[in-house]
Amino acid sequence: MMDQPANQPEDTRAEMPVDKQIKRRSFIAFGTFILLQAAALTGWKLLYNAELETTGITARTRKPLRRALNQTELFFRRLFSNNHLVKTYPKEMAAKKVRVNSDIGLTGDFNIADWKLNINRAPGDVLSISLKELQALPKTELVFDFKCVEGWDQIQHWAGVKFSDFVAHYQLDKQAEMEYVGMATPDKKYYVGLDTASAMHPQTILAYEMNDEPLLPQHGAPLRLIIPVKYGIKNLKRISTITFSNTRPPDYWAEQGYDYYSGL
Ligand SMILES: Nc1nc2c(c(=O)[nH]1)N[C@H]1C(S)=C(S)[C@@H](COP(=O)(O)O)O[C@H]1N2
Ligand SMILES: [Mo]
Hints:
By secondary structure, the protein is an alpha+beta fold. It has two domains: 14-48; 83-256, Sulfite Oxidase, Chain A, domain 2. The chain is 25% helix and 23% strand. The protein has helices spanning 18-49, 63-80, 131-135, 163-169, 196-199; strands spanning 52-54, 60-62, 117-122, 125-129, 140-147, 153-162, 180-184, 191-195, 205-210, 213-214, 224-226, 241-245. A five-stranded mixed β-sheet has the order 4-3-12-7-8. Strands 5, 6, 9, 10 and 11 form a five-stranded antiparallel β-sheet that branches. The chain has a two-stranded antiparallel sheet with strand order 1-2. The longest helix is centred in the first third of the chain and has 32 residues, at 18-49. Bound molecules: ligand MTE and molybdenum atom (MO). Molybdenum atom (MO) binds at residues 101, 148-150, 232-233. Keywords: Membrane, Transmembrane, Transmembrane helix. This is Oxidoreductase molybdopterin binding. Residues 111-253 form the Oxidoreductase molybdopterin-binding domain.
């Protein structure tokens, strides 16, 4: 700091007595504070009076807030859905004893011999596909680090048909232009909603093998989803139905308050 030359005032305000200067500045600061408070209160009141929107069983958000959240999410989704590949590993690194987690939709009566994959192409138009037909399509293997939101991860080896190959083979291109894909177990007790971009990611597979063997019941036999750009919760075991839509399909864990996107 340099001293001001004694004969040169700093600026014209320096002619105002110091106590007046302080009063003036405090007045401006306080006025600004009041204005900001009023703006914040108005914003809050607008939001508070806005309609409540139920997005799941428990997650209730006011409409403008929900819209802002959706927009933010959409922004990040577009930013990250650019076909970045998830890291893969050599087969030898894959776990021999694969962790089993959660069995919602797997506990009831189920006859694997009667199983078919049902694609809702349009209202009233269901395409049913057998496991044999799926196994006749090009097979894709994937060894990656599977991550569960509960905090564990494990390198696992899966194989099946790429979801994008499946879409191309069954000419579901029109359906895949829709924004979302929904999947559910035969008893409809577990269900997930996915953004179609993530479903069409080159590492997303409809898996029927684990460690070069047919899927075990506890891992979702005969067919499960492996979607490495998402947490485990989205990797639905025992897929029965697949539906395309432009509105968000119901999602079991999103209804419990988990992030709908659940991306990595
Ligand atoms: N049908 C069904 N699929 C499911 C679940 C479930 O409870 N039911 N749990 C999910 C969760 S939270 C995880 S971490 C993975 C676990 O798959 P794994 O048991 O093969 O390790 O499956 C997912 N898919
Ligand atoms: Mo999980």
